[in-house]
Structures are given as structure tokens and as C-alpha cells.
Design brief:
Blueprint lengths: L2 E4 L8 E3 L3 H13 L8 H10 L2 H9 L21 H9 L3 H14 L14 H13 L2 H12 L1 H45 L1 H8 L3 E6 L2 E6 L5 E4 L5 E6 L7 E3 L7 E5 L11 H10 L3 H10 L6 H8 L3 H13 L3 E6 L2 E6 L1 H4 L2 H10 L1
Parallel strand pairs: 1-5, 2-6, 6-8
Antiparallel strand pairs: 1-4, 3-4, 7-8, 9-10
Helix pairs in contact: 1-8, 4-8, 5-6, 6-7, 7-8, 8-9, 10-15, 12-13
């Protein structure tokens, strides 16, 4: 599973690494709405939530469909600016249909996200679905969804003021702390792109990213638990480093929007180096009761095939077949001692299964 972005013929200068204050504010708001997703930010989310003005906290709950489950497209700028005010000015230039449709598209029409749904301002089906899903989140979200569709211009002004109030209340200080790191990360990846090429820059950004070249076709591949395809031949690709976003990894690939990738900045990934396929193999390998029993012995020490066959009361060929599955999943270490081959559970890999699984589903 992956999201692929066709960049065939795209000049290197159209691939941009840059921090975005609006994107990082969206990440910070998500962390406040879902602190369990962000254990590393526990101290910040706890202190910030406790210090929030109650009226501001209520307003954040009203609009949280834009950042709670995932991130609305309007919070992922394809052309990052130096300041939040400049990026909010860019949002003001969007027409109401584009703004409202993209603000509500992911949370209200996620199953059809990649198909370029019409705006709920103009399409009855999209409107009904948007309102139904807003209602499922609670009365505040339902009322806000109705308000956005009834008065899009006024509601956009309300959203801008909300984001500006968040900036004054807590985000400006947070941005001052993280901006230096994000800018340095973006400069490093840009330098790699110029000196060593896109493949090196993507690999340095994250093991989730890779460059796939097939003849004359070039694609950026984002390893995620979803399928998605888009192209950037006539536009470009923007890559946004984030501190507040870990462990999430976003790829904006909706029709009509320039592709944007948001990746955790250096030193902010825990696990996260494993592909979705590797995590899947490990989970599947451990679903069989006999392999679980074998792991019980292999965790306590190195064992030969015959020792395992005796301990588990199965034949040596059966043991070998189960060991082959565990080996393909990367769960075993093997060494030879004389004429015996000894197998042992790789505890360093096993202990990461939980965090690797969590990272892959939150990615």
C-alpha cells in the first residue's frame, strides 16, 4: 500500500522543502484534540490545554473536524510563507467552494477523498454527507457544519480569527521554539537535493519516502496504509518538516491540489523505520498459535530445530516451516554452533512491534 506521486519531467527546482507555520499550527491543534496520539508532547499538551481560555477552548471544539481525525487540505499549504499571517492571506484568496469543500472533504467524505468530490456548497449529496458526519461528532460540530454551509464567508472569517487567537494564546511561542529546527531540516534536505539528487533527499527525510524510477517514469512513493495516486507534472511537490506532527505522515493528493507531503523532522521519529509490509508480515507471523509457542522457547534462549520439535511435540519439518515464516518477518536471529543451527527470537525487533504498528496506522 502506498501513495504515489508522478513527477516525470518535473524540474528539481519545483520540489521544495520548507517549514509552514499554518501546517504546524494544524499539527499543534490536532495534538491538543488527540493528545494520546502524541505521547512525546504530553507535557506541552497538558500545560497548554490547562492554560486555554475556556471560550477559546469551546471554539476549538466547534471547528475540530478540520484537524482532529486528519488534516484539512487548507491546513497543508503548497506554497509556505514566512509568517502565519501571510499563509492565512493565501487562504483568504480561495473561493468559498474551494475553501469549504477542502476544509470538510477529508472528515466528511473520506471514502471518496481521491475522486475530487464536488463542494458541499453546490452538491446536495456532498452536503448531506458532510452534515451527517458532522452530527455524528456532536451537536457543536453539527451546528458549526450548518453554519459553514449557510454562511461560508462569515465562517471563514471566524476560522481565521480562531487561528489568529490560537497564535496569540500559545502557538507563537511554540513556533519560535521549533522554527529554527524546521528551517535547518528543510535547508539540509534542499542541499541534499541539489548535491546528491532527489532519492538521497527523500531517504534523509524519512524511510517512509522513496523514489521509484521505471524507464522514463519517476514517482515519489509514500509508504502508507492507503492507496492513492496523483501527479505533479504541471505543478510541483512541497515537503513540510514537522515537530508537532509526529507520528503522523501526511500526503495531500486530492485532485486539483498541488501534492504536499508532511514528514516528521529529524530526531522526532520513534520506530517509524519499518515499512507497512514489514509490520504486516510480523503481525501475521505471530497469529499462528504454534508460532507463538515456538516464540516462547526462542525468547528464552537459542534452540535448534530438533530441540524445538521435541519441546512442541511436532516434527522437525513442521518446525522449519514455522521458523521460515518467522525469519521472513525478521523476527529471528540465527547462528551456527558446530553442526547445529541455533535460532533465537530477536527481542529488539519484537519490542518495537507495538510502536511500529502504531506508527504505521497513524502514519
Amino acid at each position: 500500500m502506498s501513495v504515489t506521486i508522478d513527477i516525470t519531467g518535473l524540474p528539481p527546482e519545483r520540489i521544495v522543502f520548507s517549514p509552514s507555520p499554518l501546517a504546524e499550527l494544524g499539527n499543534a491543534l490536532h495534538a491538543l484534540a488527540e493528545p494520546a496520539h502524541h505521547p512525546r508532547l504530553h507535557a506541552w499538551t497538558t500545560a497548554t490545554a490547562a492554560a486555554l481560555d475556556p471560550e477559546l477552548a469551546d471554539r476549538l471544539v466547534e471547528a475540530d473536524f478540520m484537524w482532529r481525525s486528519t488534516r484539512s487540505d487548507v491546513l497543508m499549504p503548497a506554497h509556505p510563507r514566512e509568517t502565519l499571517a501571510e499563509e492565512l492571506d493565501d487562504l483568504d484568496r480561495l473561493d468559498d467552494e474551494t475553501f469549504v469543500g477542502s476544509a470538510m472533504e477529508i472528515s466528511c467524505s473520506s471514502s471518496l477523498y481521491g475522486r475530487g468530490l464536488p463542494s458541499p456548497l453546490t452538491d446536495d449529496r456532498a452536503r448531506r454527507r458532510a452534515l451527517d458526519l458532522a452530527a455524528a461528532r456532536g451537536p457543536r460540530q453539527a451546528a458549526f457544519g450548518e453554519r459553514m454551509l449557510a454562511d461560508p464567508t462569515g465562517t471563514r472569517v471566524w476560522i481565521r480569527r480562531l487561528l489568529e487567537d490560537c497564535d496569540r494564546a500559545f502557538f507563537a511561542d511554540a513556533w519560535r521554539r521549533v522554527h529554527v529546527q524546521l528551517a535547518a531540516d528543510a535547508r539540509h534536505k534542499t542541499d541534499l537535493l541539489r548535491r546528491k539528487g532527489l532519492a538521497e533527499a527523500l531517504a534523509a527525510a524519512s524511510p517512509v519516502l522513496s523514489l521509484e524510477e521505471d524507464g522514463q517514469v519517476s514517482r515519489i512513493v509514500v509508504d502508507k496504509l492507503v492507496h492513492g495516486r496523483t501527479e505533479a507534472r504541471g505543478s510541483g511537490v512541497t515537503l513540510l518538516p514537522t515537530v508537532f506532527g509526529w507520528p503522523h505522515f501526511f500526503a495531500l493528493y486530492a485532485p486539483g491540489w498541488q501534492p504536499v507531503i508532511q514528514y516528521p523532522a529529524a530526531a522526532h521519529e520513534v520506530g517509524g523505520t519499518e515499512s507497512v509490509e514489514a509490520v504486516k508480515l510480523r503481525l501475521e507471523a505471530l497469529t499462528h498459535p504454534m508460532r507463538m509457542n515456538l516464540c516462547r522457547h526462542l525468547a528464552r534462549g537459542a534452540c535448534s530445530t530438533s530441540e524445538l520439535a521435541d519441546a512442541c511435540a511436532i516434527t522437525a519439518p513442521e518446525v522449519s516451516r514455522h521458523l521460515a515464516v518467522l525469519r521472513r518477518a525478521g523476527l529471528l536471529t540465527t547462528r551456527r554452533r558446530g553442526r547445529y543451527v541455533l535460532h533465537q527470537l530477536d527481542l529488539s525487533v519484537v519490542v518495537r512491534i507495538g510502536s511500529d504498528f502504531l506508527e504505521s496506522v497513524l502514519r
